[in-house]
Write a structure and sequence with these properties.
7-stranded mixed sheet, 4-stranded mixed sheet, 11 helices, alpha/beta
Amino acid sequence: MVPVATGAPHAGGDIVVTVADGVATVTLNRPEVRNAVTLAMWRAMPDLFARLGADESVRAVVVRGAGTEAFTSGADIAEFRDGESRAYHEAYEAAVEAVAACPKPVVAMIHGYCMGGGVGLALACDLRFAADDARFAVPAARLSIAYPVASLRRLVALVGPSRAKDILFSARVLGADEALRIGFVDRVVAAADLEGATRAYLRDLAALAPLSQRASKGFVDGLVAGRLPAGKPIPEDLARLASACHDSADYAEGVRAFLEKRPPRFTGR
């Protein structure tokens, strides 16, 4: 099993998890190989993100690579020589689906290289904040592999079919400015300022109503997936998310705080 450590970042383990001020930081901690993700690391992610999703002390999650050279260079290709490519593919798909399914807001903080499976991991996050030195590529055409369908769907949803085909056909490297222009990333910040800007954004998220954020994520993802056609009943799981907001103590607190002209104190209940 992959070592998953808690405590200070880079304290040990291939995945390091810390929680402070309601924000969980998930650090891919293999800087010596540009944070390449092993089969064991992908296999650890579904349980990890399920636990973060269920932890009431966690309001938001940031995913990053150790250091500033790379978010992740993607798959640890050295493992493929051992016949692990199919198992790796399956573990990767389960991991990115778990990240996407996390009910909390998840932000990818991207320094440096974000390649291959790293692009898929970033796509599974709700938002992508990148340093101005970030570089992106999907080198599937250099390895004769098919990029996983779930990640393709997310890529097409963000950049459109023609740009997705260009990225995949050419395996070329995109700079941060182009990634922002085509909609792959949501913000580009000077590398020295990326962590501060991302942390400030996440602190603001952590102070807002978690039930509302959970409902917003569920409804937006439902719309993108075609689960909310016009004129049809809202799916039961999404209707429950809306009801949880309206029936909550947080809703009463939000109204009371507005009338009293003070910041609300949300508890997620």
